Amino acid sequence: MEELHVRSAILVVARSRRAKHAEKANSVGWRGVAGDLGVVDLYDVWRRRPGARHVGPGWFHIEYTATIGRRFFRGMCMGSIAAKYDWDADRFPALVRDLGRVPWDPEAPRLLSERTGLSHAASTQVLIGRGEWYGWDSRFDARERPALGVTAAESKDAQRELSEIYDRDKLTATALFERSLPQDPAELWQPGGIHALTERLAAYWVEQFGRRPNVPPATLAAAVLVEMELNDSQLVFRPSAAVLCATLADPDGSAMLTAQLDSRLEKSTLTTGFNIIGESDALWPFGQRWEPLIQFCRWAYAYLPASDPVRDGVPRTIELLRAQLRQPGLLLSLGTVSAQTITALHTRRESEPWPKSPDADTFDDGLIVAKRRRSDEWELYFRPASFQRDDRSADLRAVVRDYRRAALLLLDWVFGPEVDAMRASIDSGRTPAGRFETDPTLSVPDLVDTIATELGVHPDAAALYLQLAALPAPTDRSIRMWNGWKPARHRAAESALVDKGLVVRSKRGRVGRQVFLPGDWIDKPGIEAYKWELHGLDISYARKYFTGASAPRVPLPTLFHTARSLVRDRMDLGP
Q1: Is 430 a domain residue?
Q2: Per the domain annotation, does 1 fall within a domain?
Q3: Which residue range forms the structural domain that includes residue 553?
Q4: What is the pLDDT of residues 416-461, one digit of tens each?
């Protein structure tokens, strides 16, 4: 049997008479390896420690005193510890030796996901006793993922999904399994044993945390990839895609969208800075999620099919977001600025000076709040309820650092008229269930007919032309999904455009397509140059592409019409 460093374990204990809280422990790994997956394995989880006496798989008596429920550090046991006090410490290892591993039930994560609303990857982590660690050791490695049916991105997202719950509610895998494991360990080997374990675990989970809405697997898989792009481009904490999707699917069930968010600043006891604090537990999640939640609203409107629960929740989510952002007591962070910036801001206010001089430690004009962090650095905050198109707001736009300017752009957008048009489009039900508004034959059928006549091409080619002209990332896979096309139909539409000289074939790295409109091209992020203006794209901190803008900021019908005019008038492409 291959050696494997076990990172999670059930700690099977024999109570010690010498100390009330100490136990002599034997260990059984609650996990398996790819290719021979099982729930229970026998490993010495400390065998790689310097001076360890036991090496390799097998059952060993570990002469180590442990407090049950304690989190072990990485050098000892990588992961969570679960204990079952009333199991016979001799009988359980004997069962494993005689019967082998408890067979892994691939339906168990699906059942747990269905009953709780957790993602499939998070349900898998819970079932094997993982998920309460922030670090890499709570994720699945390259050997485990194929056997468990989990991708690397899903594993990473699940780790964040569970870490947030465990940290908020202080629940450990110990408590989960103490309540869920059977009284008789032999039940684990019986038919339906893991199913029954999962039922108990799901019931306890719902009792502790409630039940989240179920998100379609295809939607969550796409959301995980979108969240990864957003996470790569911005230096802010990102919540998991699963949490964002659940919020959109049930916005009224989200505390961050319904709670009172009065807040104030308090000096941090751990750093030289300040913390935003308040009475509501929803304050911190709102401060971390409001930006990605707005970006997810744009993405869900444009790229999810009609009647998807996540897309259907966008109008109500926007309504609640607007209400929260207009709470007068809400403070949001905009990062740090230099002392020179504060002086410049004071200079801009000569006609309307700050309430205090620039040498004071705190400035507060009702919109902008600045607090001195140290002599040459200030922390900048603002009240979104007072953020409007006035002089104070213009001052704030001028001084905020580039990588935080995106927050103000999102705030402008969420209160703009384009959002109302998007909400109306979703509520109207004009797009048939399961179809996409990114299909021009559904969103702008008259424009498709007009272009087909002008260019002398089939309506399929006209629709593809509009998508190539307007959308930031019209990959082959996406086009076929949006339009419901088979590859042959897609290739025929491409060929018609190539034959007319309206597009060119070219191999360009990592863009997922081979036809492009003629004109200048930007290698990073891989987009036609004119689309930079079309989508109002921006460069974020460290000159990374701000991918949040890759979801259209305007309703798709407007985007298609604008793109057609822009391509025709500015680049002289087509009639």
Answers
A1: no
A2: no
A3: 436-571
A4: 999 999 999 999 999 999 999 999 999 999 999 999 999 999 999 9
